[in-house]
Amino acid sequence: GAEGPTLMSYFSKNQIQALKPKITFSTLRDLQCPVLQSQDLQGRPEESCSTEELLEWLGAVLNQVSLDNKSSSFISTYCCPEPNTVVEKAFLCTITGFIIPEKIIQLLEQLCCYFAEPKLAPWLTLTVHGFADSPVSWRESEHGFHKGGENFYNFVIFRNLDYWLQMAVGAHDDCPP
């Protein structure tokens, strides 16, 4: 109807442009990382950590929570799950903005190429999350914000190209397909 041309002229008149995603890079030094085995989703005592332990650890790292379990800390006494290993350098890249699925697939493919070079990393992760109060979620349902607004998925890719896919949604949302 008549709204189309009106909106177009408003946007062009006010020079509203699509925002480019913001990219930040950081290097984390001497980072404690859980030991993972691609075939052991539940983990094994003294051999590998579980998928749940990994996700909790990843949340701490992405939110820059200390992993050293200091009793004097008022923020967190979290520590890296066992068994773990200290990584001299870990690379963190954060892309913020509206990112279409095709770009996420491209990112995944580029990450998999990392293992083709003689790198030392046994695994890497790609986490994609929507805004907590996003109006949409998976499938046909609106996104429920009731408590935390959980709305993300995480790929863990191993050197042999096995992978884990972890998904989280709020209690009132549809589960992903």
From TrEMBL:
One of the protein's GO biological processes: endonucleolytic cleavage in ITS1 to separate SSU-rRNA from 5.8S rRNA and LSU-rRNA from tricistronic rRNA transcript (SSU-rRNA, 5.8S rRNA, LSU-rRNA)
Domain of life here?
A: Eukaryota
Q: Which GO terms describe its cellular component?
A: multimeric ribonuclease P complex; ribonuclease MRP complex
Q: Which InterPro entries match?
A: RNase_P_Rpp40
Kindly list the GO molecular function terms attached to this UniProt entry.
Answer: ribonuclease MRP activity; ribonuclease P activity
Using the record for this protein, list the coiled-coil segments as residue ranges, or answer none. none
User: Matching PANTHER family, A to Z?
Assistant: RIBONUCLEASE P PROTEIN SUBUNIT P40
**Protein's name in the database:** RPP40 protein
From the UniProt record, report the name of the gene that encodes this protein. Rpp40
